[in-house]
Amino acid sequence: MEAPIRIGLFGLGKAGKEVAEQMLSDPAVELAWVVRSGRSASPVLLTKEVPICFSGEVRLNDLIEQNHVDFVVDFSTADSCLDYAEIAAQKGVGIISAVSAYKKHHLACLKKASKKTAVLYSPNITLGINFIIIAGKILRKLAPHAGVEVVEEHFHDKKEVSGTAIRIAELLDLDPAKQVNSVRVGGIVGRHEIIFGFPYQTIRLIHDSISRAAFGQGALYAIKNLYGRPKGFYTMEQLVAEGFSAALS
Amino acid sequence: MEAPIRIGLFGLGKAGKEVAEQMLSDPAVELAWVVRSGRSASPVLLTKEVPICFSGEVRLNDLIEQNHVDFVVDFSTADSCLDYAEIAAQKGVGIISAVSAYKKHHLACLKKASKKTAVLYSPNITLGINFIIIAGKILRKLAPHAGVEVVEEHFHDKKEVSGTAIRIAELLDLDPAKQVNSVRVGGIVGRHEIIFGFPYQTIRLIHDSISRAAFGQGALYAIKNLYGRPKGFYTMEQLVAEGFSAALS
Amino acid sequence: MEAPIRIGLFGLGKAGKEVAEQMLSDPAVELAWVVRSGRSASPVLLTKEVPICFSGEVRLNDLIEQNHVDFVVDFSTADSCLDYAEIAAQKGVGIISAVSAYKKHHLACLKKASKKTAVLYSPNITLGINFIIIAGKILRKLAPHAGVEVVEEHFHDKKEVSGTAIRIAELLDLDPAKQVNSVRVGGIVGRHEIIFGFPYQTIRLIHDSISRAAFGQGALYAIKNLYGRPKGFYTMEQLVAEGFSAALS
Amino acid sequence: MEAPIRIGLFGLGKAGKEVAEQMLSDPAVELAWVVRSGRSASPVLLTKEVPICFSGEVRLNDLIEQNHVDFVVDFSTADSCLDYAEIAAQKGVGIISAVSAYKKHHLACLKKASKKTAVLYSPNITLGINFIIIAGKILRKLAPHAGVEVVEEHFHDKKEVSGTAIRIAELLDLDPAKQVNSVRVGGIVGRHEIIFGFPYQTIRLIHDSISRAAFGQGALYAIKNLYGRPKGFYTMEQLVAEGFSAALS
Q: How far is CA B113 from the centre of its chain?
């Protein structure tokens, strides 16, 4: 049996905790340490013991030197990457970020790191969402005259349009203002539907989220897929599209 | 066996033709005559022979005297009611109208007729739509805190928001501008979904139209249900709500 | 403000814990104590402190005398009712049970208690499921010729057919062996769809479970609705049907 | 503008008529003639005039000599291919068959013809069905541990399990007896749903048929795609899979 891929995780909020649990239950990876925000002091229990550091109190350089990892995985906030990207790049540690709120300078920081190490960035890192995106892109090419709209449904308190739905619209060459419909009711975890309308048939590609643990599964897919790859900037869509090509050959 | 209920039909367009066919295949009613627009000369074949008159060439008074009917059923255009409403009212002939494009004076004309005969008006006369409307109204009362949105899907060329969806919104006390989402792709005949979101569960009431013949089925339901009732103004929603009460008792 | 309705809860498994949390967050009720199985010693943390007793170690009679409740609510196993039903009946404490695995003698025990106190039994106590059941029963009466099938979807490890789906079939006069279709994949929490097929339209009544906390919401609905009612045997379907009638009048 | 691709059509039943109409409305093809069964004498009106022969009265050899076609397209019954396959093969006329009821000797007959001409056989020739099949096959490879089931819904009078659903099951390596669920209610034209269940997410690939005209659109896709290809045996799935590869490159 091969040695597990070693991971350092940034973020231990709702998504981060679920991601940590997924990593703890997969023997192919080892969660070496977690860095969480120092501002909140509420304790988080994980099912196995893992060193948890607070972001304000840890020197990343020391942490990586003492406890080497193959990848840092980021489910924290936008600014974290400004701390770890350069250090990780210098040490050849891969970077996988699923933070959705990046601005231009955050992306620039990751792109710079990708000159020296493998960096993957995807604001929605689930296999399912990326599967329907790639399938949808293909159907757009096969049937350019079909009408396309997106319906996304989320819990009442999600105020903004789903970033994933906007990303789907961009990649499928749709107008987010006209072709994305947002439903906000109750406690729906997350549902994205791409509807392709033909004169005599309709195709629906639907992704239903059950829990945030799907992010952890997506991160594991990315980690295993990216392991051993050369430096460069990757996206989850790209990995899934490669999976399509491999499956077809 | 009782004598069939006799019907005069206005309108022989796409919906009207389907309605006529439904009437021809139900032994409980007899389609006595059809009045269609004289402007279009394209022939319409029905599966049985029925006298077809052109609206510009027929005197309604004579038509009803010579060929008595219990109900006139209207699937034509808004102005037709201005011709037949008073004559029907005087002769005690019931009126069932499913025309969607009425303005105030058309409705006033039907309301006036309802002082003398039974008049039913419903822009969407299918049993299914009215069922989800009444079920939805009840759920609003049972769970006033649940969030509600409507998604309606239709063929690409339907430019306006579904009148049925707007009616659903009105009856469920929703804001049509915010809580009705319209999808327009391909050849979807018609789909209306009312989504009730609770914190930990979601209820969906969905109506899928397969063909316009559903209007004929709805008209038959209205005819049989209205037959023998006193004068007055009725709606399909009201008949279906009565059906709910009867089923519960 | 009125005094909260006092509750004693049996069961602190996956469902029981969620139900307890719902009760703790609703000021209209007060969770006075919990009785859980003594066999498992794994600790359960609730967000507020509530006395937790082990079923093997507690004398129910004393518990109720010392810490009076208006209702016992049961989300534990079938045999619990054999312990509490008679004691609760004697003291006029209402009983609400959502245990699904009852055999005849368990039901007989609850029925006997209902001679002296109000007893509600529903194996699926969510408002949503009972709403689609009552709506479905009504539609069966309105449209007796429509075809009906049920599709239920659950997580892969649920081996048996959904008890809720079988209950839907019974109440809608369907053959569970032919008209209930069971899908078992992945981690679907629970989805029940009743499909009514007409020649030219289809109506779908769908209930999607998001989490077991919906059981707690249903129990709260039952508690508030049953409070102050006379002795007798009630079901959730009956309460929801009453809600339909009230909404229609 | 290039000369249209010339077509001879076998079959003028419900599907055949819709296919003929689709061909008549696409300038890229020309419907040269139709051969229909002589047993039924009910007239079929097409929107344009096309020579219609009865299968018992026509000599195919003469028909093709006098009125050359590039493809014969077959939406008739299983035995037709026994008549035309060898003649078409000898003359280099391509064959596209969408007949679903073939037995082994019918398929053998088409395979033999494919030694001399291009032959495509697909019992469901719509782009949509073949799209969800190929997308489903890919997802099986990307996520071999996901659970998969198929739900197919059709009108009440369709007695047998959908041949398309069985084909989906075969190609996705499922057990048709366990993993295909059939709903039969009302007038549903045809709906196929492939459900992929993951622990924390669900993906649904859904195809809704609106009318049989979708077969015509699928035949046109096949005709244009097959035109100019070398002899051999093709399937619609294969053409669509090629479309996937082309879209990805």
A: 18
